[in-house]
Amino acid sequence: MAKKSTDLKHIPGEDPFIVARGGFYRRWLSMIEDIDELEGIVASLDSTTEDNWVPIWRAAGVKHEALGDNYDANGDHVAARKAHLLAKTFYAIGRFPSEVSPVKAAISADCARAYRKACAHLDPPMQVIDVQCDGQRFRTHFRAPKSDKPVPAVLIMCGADVFKEDRGWAAELALDAGLASLVMDAPGTGENPFPWVPESVKAWVAAIDALMARPEVDETQVGAFGVSRGGYSVMQLAGTAPEKIKAVVASAGHPFGYEMTEDEMAAVATARNRRSTFRFGPADGPPSFPTWSVEKEKEIFEGWSLSSLGLVEKITMPVLMINGDSDHLAPIGNIYFMLESGPPGTRSAKVYKGSGHCAFEHQPEWGPASFKWLADRLQA
């Protein structure tokens, strides 16, 4: 019997040479059915620098993209979509963490191409929408259920190192719940040119405005959904534009306002510093992730926390928060902090015991439940 992701050990962390629940590949596990294939690819890796990393993941992507092309040629569009999505996922792993070099930009283009092929026969179709903001524009993906009247909608926010091509599953779940959706890259990632600074929330507001302006959308019933750093982003958006956001689902997210103990901050710094030891770009290039410290964590809190930005009490719409109780990047205290504030009855949470960042291994449960929850609050 083929191994499933649920059969894997739970080993939180960022080690790309280990395939485990809560580990580095948690971002993509739900998109890969054949865990044996994934483990075989990982076993063939000698390093994470792009000279070794990118060719191995590209070879896996090319293999499945070719299979998808053959299925398409034979008219089996369902099998083709499945193969093209898997190709996209392997290309996306090769691109990690972002387009930091020409080699990474090339495999990022492979990822986008495979995703376009996977979406070629969708019904209802995926539309590419360019959102304008401050003289710049960024590309988003829009889908809407077939309806003779406007429907509620949700903005789907990506995180730091997973782009909109990897959030198609969320758009599918939105459709299943009767919701339209707009999927966007976070600032500083993918096709979003805005820098990752608190002020870039204006780009998210522009995306909400574009979503509300769609004729397929009921502009009075718009929510937001985000995972990982996207979980923080939708909370920041909700506090910034509470008159536009009617309901929010945040899977993980940090910092909300929970002040960690020195031991907790040291643990987060340790986890981030382990990640900084892996170089994913050129062998002679800069580190892919910065070194971390308790002082850096305090600086991030002062500049980014919802409490420091004065947003906590502005988040008065229904909020559902999700995470594992052993998250090494977004401490669970963030959820408890938010539950202690806001109007009674507006904030709820699902915490998975013994699970890590975003509780990704439980996504088959919390994913559909999140969009059903949104649909109920948005009156879909």
Polypeptide structure, described:
By secondary structure, the protein is an alpha/beta fold. It has helices at residues 35-43, 50-73, 77-95, 102-118, 168-176, 201-213, 229-240, 262-276, 294-304, 333-339, 363-377; strands at residues 127-133, 136-143, 151-157, 180-184, 217-227, 248-251, 319-324, 347-352. It has two domains: 5-118, no CATH class; 127-257 and 305-377, Rossmann fold (3-Layer(aba) Sandwich), CATH 3.40.50.1820. Strands 1-2-4-3-5-6-7-8 form an eight-stranded mixed β-sheet, with helices on both faces. A hairpin with a 2-residue loop joins strand 1 and strand 2 (136-143). The termini are far apart.
Under CATH, the topology of the largest domain can be stated as Rossmann fold
Radius of gyration: 20 Å
Uncertain runs are none
Instruction: Give the name of the CATH architecture of the largest domain.
Output: 3-Layer(aba) Sandwich
Order of helices and strands: HHHHEEEHEHEHEHHEHEH
Under CATH at level 1, the class of the largest domain stands as Alpha Beta
Strand proportion, as a percent range, falls in 5-15%
Structural class of the helices, strands and pairings?
alpha/beta
The main sheet orders its strands as 1-2-4-3-5-6-7-8
Count of the separate structural domains: 2
**Average predicted confidence as pLDDT:** 94
Helicity range: 25-40%
How many angstroms separate the termini? 40 Å
Task: Assign the CATH superfamily of the largest domain.
Answer: Alpha/Beta hydrolase fold, catalytic domain
Could you state the oligomeric state of the chains shown?
A: single chain
Topology, number of strands: 8
Total count of helical runs of at least 4 residues: 11
Shape: globular
Main β sheet profile = 8 strands, mixed
